[in-house]
Amino acid sequence: MSSSNDSEKPRKKSAFSRRGFLQGVSVTGSAAIGTGLLAPETAEAQSAPGVVSGEVPITLNINGKPYKTVAEPRMTLLDVLRNNLDLTAAKRVCDRGTCGACTVTVDGKAVYSCTLLAIDSQNQKIQTLESLSEGGKRHPLIEAFVANDAQQCGYCTPGFVMASKAFLDRTPNPTEQQVREGLGGNLCRCGTYMGIRKAVVQASQQMKGGNRA
């Protein structure tokens, strides 16, 4: 049985302390980060072939003209059109490839420019709404949209016009039902669908005269 004197003896100080442990972790962690021990995946990604970081030069063929700019590989065609080249007709609305407001044509096909990488759009023929009113002469589609009140707030209109252009290029004499089906990938929150369909049919009649640029 221990005496009362035993309880009064000073305890030996432990070699381990919470402060010492934290200091050790701080020093070791800093050294590990500095030597790359804690980031093998990052180092591997940077050295992997084909991985590009930062901006790179690209050339886009837009409306029959070459446009040279620099862009990050992750930038979409929509971003480059609007932010780098000041071609702002294509609108950013949903940014999810569902509404069609950013529609342009690529090699004659209507596409959502928010779903394409600009770097992958090189060596392709891109057409935007700006091309349909060059030289002060408006395309029959634009005239028909105005004549049939086929626009209200206007956010969806550029996409609808470009989708209609691609549609009429492959279906030059459509019925309203064919127009309805052909433009099914574009949405109008204002509900001007009737005016849009009439505009496309009217434009098809006018475009028979040869103005299909």
Number of helices: 8
- Kindly state the percentage of residues in helix: 25-40%
Low-confidence stretches: 30-48
Question: In the CATH hierarchy, what is the superfamily?
Answer: Beta-grasp domain
Number of strands: 5
- CATH architecture classification: Roll
**What's the number of domains?**
1
Look at the helices and sheets and give the structural class: alpha+beta
**CATH fold category name:** Ubiquitin-like (UB roll)
The largest sheet is:
5 strands, mixed
Strand order, sheet with most strands? 2-1-5-3-4
Listing every helix as H and every strand as E from the N terminus to the C terminus, the arrangement reads HHHEEHEEEHHHH
- How far apart lie the N and C ends? 107 Å
How much is the radius of gyration in Å? 31 Å
Structure overview:
With 213 residues, the chain is α+β, with helices and mostly antiparallel strands. It has one domain (56-207): Ubiquitin-like (UB roll), CATH 3.10.20. It is 38% helix and 12% strand. The chain has helices at residues 4-7, 18-34, 40-47, 77-84, 140-147, 157-170, 176-182, 193-207; strands spanning 56-62, 65-71, 103-106, 109-112, 125-127. It has a five-stranded mixed beta sheet with strand order 2-1-5-3-4, sandwiched between helices. Strand 3 (103-106) and strand 4 (109-112) form a beta hairpin. Helix 5 packs antiparallel against helix 8. 32% of the residues are buried.
